[in-house]
Amino acid sequence: MGEVLEALFSERWPYLLTVVMLLIGLYGMLMKRNLVKKLIGMNIFQCAIILFFIVHAYKYNASVPVYSEVLGEHPELYMNPIPHGLMLTAIVVSVATTGVALALLTLIYRRFGTVDEVELLQKLREE
After folding, report:
1. Are 49 and 87 in contact (CB under 8 A)?
2. Residue 9, CA distances (Å) to 19, 41, 60 in order
3. Sign of CA dihedral 20, 25, 31, 32
4. Number of Cβ atoms within 10 Å of the Cβ of 81
5. Membrane-spanning regions, if any (predicted)?
6. Residues 31, 45: contact at Cβ < 8 Å?
7. Which residues in the chain come in under a pLDDT of 70?
8. pTM score > 0.85 for this model?
């Protein structure tokens, strides 16, 4: 049993880190009342997804996708650049989403004086 756990943690630690980050982000989004904390949870969740794709696309001892005379035409010896490029796009979308969310939270705080979800819903019902 100890050998199985040791192999699990030594070989698959990036996946375990991703799962832990996913759970932390999901907890932050679902369980926190403060909207800023929910936004932080969403960012952690997005980072975990990006990390998962980057880790999954990694190849051990692979070369950059530029043709080499030494490696020849063996595609298994080259790394696939598409997931990395897609994750760069995901990072840009994440930053843009965060910026818009912070702008909306600023407007919510200026109008209602709170970013607490329960208080905000209560003030909306009163209006």
Report:
1. no
2. 13, 25, 18
3. positive
4. 12
5. 12-30, 39-58, 86-109
6. no
7. 1, 71, 75
8. no
Distance between CA atoms of residues 41 and 28, nearest Å: 4
If one counts every other C-beta atom within 10 angstroms of the C-beta of residue 25, the result is: 20
pLDDT digits (tens, 9 = 90+) for 13-44: 888 899 999 999 999 999 999 999 999 999 99
Dihedral of the alpha carbons of 45, 48, 50, 55, in degrees to the nearest 10: -170
The encoded tokens of residue 100 equal: 């818009």
Q: What angle do CA 100, 39, 57 make, to 5 degrees?
A: 90
CB atoms within 10 A of CB 104: 12
Q: What phi, psi does 59 have (nearest 5°)?
A: -120, 130
Q: What domains are defined for the chain? A: 2-126 (1.10.287.3510)
Question: What would the 3-class secondary structure string for 68-113 be?
Answer: CCCCCCCHHHECCCHHHHHHHHHHHHHHHHHHHHHHHHHHHHHHHC
Return d(Cα 98, Cα 42) in angstroms, integer.
9
The tokens of 37 are what?
């904390």
